[in-house]
Design brief:
Helix content is about 75%, strand content about 0%. It is mostly helical and about 240 residues long. The longest helix has about 45 residues. The chain is globular, with a radius of gyration of 20 Å. About 30% of the residues are buried.
Length: about 240
């Protein structure tokens, strides 16, 4: 389905039902909680190198001139590389997170529809998807900056369409990055209140893992991502079913 046809399909779809998506998400979580835990660990392990990059200038400076750190102000030769690196690091983290979230949604689909395929956590780590995810991350970063400029209130609005982007990345291979963003806004605007409510409620439920000595949150964190799969499934559907 091309972009225009997909847009019309979304606009003509039935409104999302909060209760149905909430219930289905809990049921599916019982099947994919372990895969969700693995995704959380992989996300942590893959973004650690990006954080290390930020501190490379400090490490180099510490080795070359230990006296430098006795100054109350950070020297320009350290500050400038860190200012340059931080946006690149943030962009890298967003790109990797998008790809892993897309893979988790694919796993959700396989388990929901009883499709016997391996849980490929790096399924979308291919050139075409990496480049698309990088562009999407740039767009998302720009949108978030605009949202913060609007006294931060814009972030509340943007959290809905941005949360839908991984689903379109995972299941709409033919769409360009910009078309994915536009489709996410179309679906998000049509069901904004329901989606925002699900994001808040499921996020709170997912955080209940903290009660299990804080470690449990690693097992429940991905519960907050599952509703996105059902939002896409109920409003858009898969190409073979349209």
């Amino acid at each position: 389905m091309n972009f225009k046809a997909l847009e019309n399909h979304i606009k003509n779809s039935n409104p999302l039902d909060f209760g149905t998506i909430f219930s289905n998400s809990i049921d599916l979580f019982k099947k994919v909680w372990l895969q969700g835990f693995v995704v959380v660990l992989l996300t942590f392990l893959t973004i650690v190198p990006f954080y290390i990059l930020i501190y490379i200038p400090l490490l180099i400076a510490g080795v070359s001139d230990p006296e430098m750190f006795k100054s109350e102000e950070m020297p320009p030769e350290i500050l400038l590389p860190m200012v340059i690196l931080m946006p690149l690091v943030f962009l890298g983290i967003m790109t990797v997170s998008l790809l892993l979230n897309a893979a988790f949604l694919r796993i959700c689909k396989n388990n929901d529809q009883n499709i016997s395929l391996s849980d490929s956590y790096f399924y979308y780590f291919k050139k075409e998807y990496i480049l698309k995810s990088l562009v999407l991350s740039l767009i998302m970063l720009g949108l978030m900056l605009l949202g913060m400029l609007a006294c931060g209130l814009g972030i509340f609005y943007l959290v809905v369409p941005i949360s839908l982007i991984p689903a379109f990345l995972a299941f709409e291979k033919e769409l360009s990055a910009m078309e994915i963003v536009k489709s996410s806004f179309t679906l998000g605007n049509k069901n904004w209140l329901v989606i925002f409510g699900l994001i808040i409620v499921m996020g709170l439920v997912a955080e209940m893992g903290i009660l299990l000595c804080f470690v449990g949150v690693f097992f429940t964190a991905m519960l907050a991502k599952i509703p996105v799969y059902f939002m896409y499934k109920d409003a858009v559907g898969f190409s073979s079913e349209r």
